[in-house]
Amino acid sequence: MTTIAFVTLMFLPISTIATIFGSQSFSISSTVSAEVTVARNIWIFWAISVPLTMLAIALWYALIRRRYL
């Protein structure tokens, strides 16, 4: 059960932020080559996701250490 909770803590913040950014980060051209371009501000996704994930893991670890979970 603890493993499932930990995996969820790893992916939940990232998937939430990815849902918010959604389709605005990538665009596919309609030409024959169908090139995929990445938005210039994709760094915002990582700047928000990584600290949020670290915060979730730190909170989980603190609660485990105090035996609240």
TrEMBL record:
Using the record, list the residue span of the signal peptide; answer none if the entry has no such feature. 1-18
Whether Signal counts among this entry's keywords is yes
Q: Which domain of life is it from?
A: Eukaryota
For this UniProt record, the keywords arranged alphabetically read as follows: Membrane, Signal, Transmembrane, Transmembrane helix
Q: Which residues cross the membrane?
A: 43-64
Q: Which organism is it from?
A: Penicilliopsis zonata CBS 506.65
Name this polypeptide is given: Uncharacterized protein
